[in-house]
């Protein structure tokens, strides 16, 4: 088939997809790369010629996703130095405080909060610092993650995914959080409909997700320069173009409260626009996920820090909400905020509301 180039700048051959687009249902696409998720599954990376969403085709199966995510989780906790793990937990806590304070300034005081894919749980813990009486529920597919969060934070935990919310029953939430989650979900259309179902009237939906063009760039370059499948260890299966994602959310019934990109240093380095092989993702070597799980589970895990140890610093010991909030703001306030439609910036920050605009 003929090679084509779209407004996104990706060239590739027009194809008939193995699976239809998860947003618009189109079966036509443009193949821009091939990739392998561990040793579990081979997929093309395809840009939809109708709605511009870039996705894996075929999508990673539920079973392969669970195995690959488990392997990646164990790999990270055993390879990242303990001191760096601790720093990351504190960073997430500070970011949660900054976000909670921003809601407070808008006159929003959520009582029931749901977070999908909570990671360490420290982001939601930071929100609870601002709103001490709020109730927090988390959902994840990795049991070890849920066990750690319940032990460290006391949140209510459920094993599951944003695609399947039956375990939550008829609950409604004032705030649904999906930070670094949308790029992982296999059916973004279904997930969005589920979030609409879970939100209370005028509830808020907060997410961050990578700038799709920058995120997929390494896979694209690997295919251009080497014509071999790239390595995919972390299950990024959606790569969002800024204006296309906004159009999709607005069509789903949301109103835009905040929508911007930040951290442009990766753009300056060339991710998303520079044709340099050094920016390419490595070629797949078919890492064995099951073998890694067996090996890593035999090791003693890194120390799980208790919250009182993690937050044992002068600034948090003051217990002064105003001082702590100001300190966290200075650490994590973004001076540069750009329109995601320009595909500039490392991540897209979104805060959307059901109902009328603020």
Keywords:
Rossmann fold; alpha/beta; 7-stranded mixed beta sheet; 12 helices; about 350 residues
Q: What do these coordinates show?
A:
By secondary structure, this protein is an alpha/beta fold. The protein has a single domain, classed as Rossmann fold. Helix content is 37%, strand content 24%. The chain is built from 12 helices and 14 strands. Strands 1, 2, 3, 4, 5, 11 and 12 form a 7-stranded mixed sheet that branches. α1 crosses α9 (289-297), α2 runs parallel beside α3 and α2 crosses α12. The longest helix is centred in the first third of the chain and has 24 residues, at 82-105. It is globular and about 60 Å long.
Which helices and strands occur, and which strands form pairs?
Blueprint: E1 3-5, E2 11-16, E3 28-37, E4 41-48, E5 54-57, H1 62-79, H2 82-105, E6 112-116, H3 122-130, E7 135-140, H4 143-153, E8 156-159, E9 173-179, H5 188-198, E10 199-210, H6 212-226, E11 230-232, E12 238-239, H7 242-251, E13 254-262, H8 265-268, H9 289-297, H10 307-310, H11 314-317, H12 321-332, E14 347-354
Parallel strand pairs: 3-11, 6-7, 6-9, 7-8, 9-10
Antiparallel strand pairs: 1-2, 2-3, 3-4, 4-5, 5-12, 10-14, 13-14
CATH topology: Rossmann fold
The total of helices stands at 12
Proportion of strand residues: 15-25%
Backbone shape: globular
The CATH homologous superfamily name equals Vaccinia Virus protein VP39
Helix fraction? 25-40%
For the record, the CATH class is Alpha Beta
* Total domains: 1
- Report mean pLDDT, rounded to a whole number: 92
Please report the total strand number as a whole number.
Answer: 14
Q: Cα-atom Rg, whole angstroms?
A: 20 Å
Q: How far do the termini sit from each other?
A: 48 Å
Largest sheet report = 7 strands, mixed
Point out poorly predicted stretches: none
Secondary-structure element order, as H and E?
Answer: EEEEEHHEHEHEEHEHEEHEHHHHHE
Based on the coordinates given, report the CATH architecture: 3-Layer(aba) Sandwich
Derived structural class: alpha/beta
